[in-house]
Amino acid sequence: MIRTIFILFFFICGISFSQNLEEAIYTATETFISNKNDASLKLLTQQEVTFKNHVKSKDEQLALVFLQCHKGYYLDEHSRLKEAISTYEDALKRFNNNELSKLSDFDIIESCLKPLGNLYTKTGDYTNAVSTINQYIFLAEKSKNTKHKISGAINLAKLYQTIGKHETVLKIVDDALKVSNNNTNQKTLLQSIKASSLIALNNFEAASILNNTASKFENFKTNYIIEFQKGDYQKALISFEKAKGHIQNANLSTRDLAKFYVEEAQLQFLLQNKNEALKSLQKAIKLLVPNLEGNSLPNKTDLYAENTFIDIFDLQATMETNSKKALDCYNLSFYVSGLLQENWTSQENKTRNQSDNRIRSEKCIDILFYNYQKTKNKALLFEAFQYSENNKASVLKSINQKKKRLQQYPNDSLLVKEFSLIKAQERYTNLLIKEQLGNNQAYKVNVLSEKLISISLQLKALKPNIEKKYPENKNVYTLEAIQKKLSKDKAVLVEYFYGKNNVYQFVISEKVMHVESFELTDETKQNIISFIHLFDDASIINNDIGNYTNRAFNIFNVLKLNTTLAYQNVIIIPDGLLNFIPFEALLSSKTSNTSFEKMPFLIKSQTIAYNSSAQFYLSESVNNKNNGLLGFFPVFENSNQKLTYSINEAHAVEEEMPSKIFMSTEASKESFIKNAAKYAILHLSTHASGGDFITPANLSFYNETMYLNELYSLDINPNLVVLSACETGVGKLYKGEGAMSIARGFQYAGAENLLFTLWQINDLSTSQIMQSFYKNYSDTESAFFANHQSKMNYLENETISNAKKSPYYWSSFVYYGKLEPVKPNFTLFYVFFGIAIALIVLFLVLKYRKHDRNTSRISS
């Protein structure tokens, strides 16, 4: 009886405490709402920490979600974007994990998902923005909430407009305008978005028709954009001033008003009204940093993750006549760009946003190179080189650093969890891509989007703890470190920066560094493109050998490679379109010879290796201790894509290397995923594609296609990957990051040394080159040397016809990786040693027999 009374007492007290806690949370939130300021925010944050430690029931969790949504709104209003995102993310995670939609009709779309999606867009986190917006569009369709569905379409259209996908914007807007029950404000906003994209596509007439129904502010602003796009800046200014006269009725946020003044500054700058432009920029800065005093640049501590700052500093740098101040402005832009990227977890997002940093890097290199020409201060050259390096393969560098850290601390649960999440992120991204390429079912897309958002939140939660435990290594390197490595390798490093207006060539040897540049005129660009297209088909070169020799020598000169001819070993770090040039097939001197074997190909005077970054060249690799080669040869018999010579290639590989070969039906994607991490060498002879604007690069197994993102999710550490398949080095080209190719996928997965192809080729020549490659590799254990020697052996082979010695057949393979020294071959030593021993033994035997015979005679 007493026990029952105690249980009832505690049950009643528990209910009372729960109700009091729920009420306390709502009271704290309402108190904050009634008096919003930094002091009340500080108090609310302190209360939030206490509430988080005690909430248990779903009602309490819902109350806390209510608090966090209001806190997030205030933080967003006051430009504390990173904190706002974190607060909204926690609210969303709490709402979903506790399945609070079943408890209440709380509008999670309006209170959390919409502002969170907008914040992702503001901070350039487009991957999470798309996932979040698609998620609430799905929820709106499910609940038949037209208002939220159209809001989702508006925000999605704005996002795609930001990244320049205007055709996509038009489709989204037109679909949204077809929906019945559109309210007037939403319809007007959709038409305004459509007008802006039509202008971007130079469809001014259609944009003007839509503009007739807009407000006076929007009407004049659209007219300004049209005139601006046409290049009539004087007329554009007239319309801009008219729009400015109606700005009070435009209801612009502080951020949008700051952007408005940046637009005004850009227009005044183009009209050469520098003072007016600077005044407009100062207005924009003062709006974003209200406490800033004077007209000086803000300190880094005043800045936050807001891309409007980047527009301001970039324009101010352009107007600066003092080179130091211009570089200071650009460096502030880089700093803000870094703040934006701190919150990104998707590599697609990081890759997509490299373009702006690249343009800025080129301007910094321009300034430094110009100053070097005036001062001959050699320190400026390495500073310019660092701007080139900082924006090369940054996503690959990041994942490489994470993998090396995990290799060093394999039992750290934080790092294991981080890497597990990264792999899951790529796996779900791949499934999402496949779904969008196939059925594109809204339910499946939503489920995958939810999973990706969840993974992103978990990665963000891990990041502070990992950074605290392992302070970020900025990968500081010196010119001396590079030159020391080059001295050891007896090599020269040639790095290109392929900009918008110029191409820079940085040449570093063991003793000196120099920089060359050439203007990237339309003619020069076309010459480079035309040379690349010579390899589209075997007949192009063979039908006009003279055209080839002229172009090959021309590109050699354009790329200023004559300065490197004194060096035997060359590391080339290409950039932009130069990623697709087979440097070994260039000609180092003019020739009229039509015999390919006798032509002065660069391969005859130099051994070339490529790399994605000087940082990768400097990094120490950890060799896979597993032995043997894993080979995949689907062959595709009984199909119109049969790889006849792939069978010869498989036999050639088996003859030269201890191998595990999967042929035909055994060469499945599942077998590859299961076995790839167990072998030191991976060899794939199959079909591949560089993809297109919709479909990513992919690799064919017998039963299934593997897309690029699925490769990203692998964790391998081979000593070498050989991709004997068509165009494995081809893919959508991103400035700075390179081609999104199958080869890059293997680099991301953990391969540091790769041999891959730049164009479509599957011929007897490939199997011959592969046989020679593995014979040389088996003898020397150097892929760097084996790649070079296999091509030389091919060119010198007298049984191969001149037509088949065209560089089309042998220069497709390029080697990215380390300059491994040739391992000493003691075979001849052992042969001669064995012969010597045998001769000595024979001599002793003969001597012994002679002695024995003489002894016998004496005794007889």
From TrEMBL:
SMART domains: TPR. The keyword Transmembrane applies. It comes from the Bacteria. Residues 565-817 form the CHAT domain. InterPro entries: CHAT_dom, TPR-like_helical_dom_sf, TPR_rpt. Keywords: Membrane, Transmembrane, Transmembrane helix. This is CHAT domain-containing protein. Signal peptide: none annotated. The chain crosses the membrane at residues 828-846.
